[in-house]
Amino acid sequence: MSLSPKVWLSVLIVLIVLLGIGAGYLLFRASPPQIAGTTTGAMIKTATEVGSTDTKTFRDSAAGILKKDGLNGEGTHHLVLDSNPKNSAYLISSVVDLDEFVDKHVEIWGETFKGSKAPWLMDVGRVKIIE
User: Fold this and answer.
1) Closest listed residue to residue 109, CA positions, set 99, 118, 95, 80
2) Where are the beta strands (DSSP E) in the chain?
3) What pLDDT is attached to residue 108?
């Protein structure tokens, strides 16, 4: 009793699907995906500092006066830099409510991204008020 080519093709397709599901499961177990807005560090919330202690993700830093509004739709806020007040870093945050720090002198830590309009676009992970 031999199997027809249609049966062999059906068995092969089922086998490929099962192997794909198994491989996907093993890959997921090996390295779970990072969800946007999550970090590996602990969170800080004091009177002068808020955010993540994850220095691997949020490794870039800058200091200046935090202002509302981005640049042509990029960023929700911007930081007028202490190092060069004519320049700004444009900011978004997946971790911190930047509105709490508007018009304050702060130091920020974040991850820099390439902006299409903004010369410096950063996802802020931690903010510290500088007295």
Assistant:
1) 95
2) 43-45, 49-52, 60-68, 77-81, 88-92, 105-113, 121-129
3) 95
pLDDT tens, position by position, 20-39: 988 887 776 665 444 444 55
* Same domain? 114 vs 54: yes
**46, two tokens:** 């004091």
64 with 111, same domain?
yes
User: What is the per-residue pLDDT for 44?
Assistant: 87
Alpha-carbon distance 90 to 94, whole Å?
Answer: 14
Three-state DSSP state, 89: strand
CA torsion sign for 69, 71, 75, 78 is: negative
Maximum CA extent, the chain = 87
Is 90 in contact with 105 (CB distance < 8 Å)? Answer: no
Instruction: Give the predicted TM-score (pTM) of the model.
Output: 0.66
Show the low-confidence residues of the chain (pLDDT under 50).
32-37
Number of domains present in the structure of the chain? 2
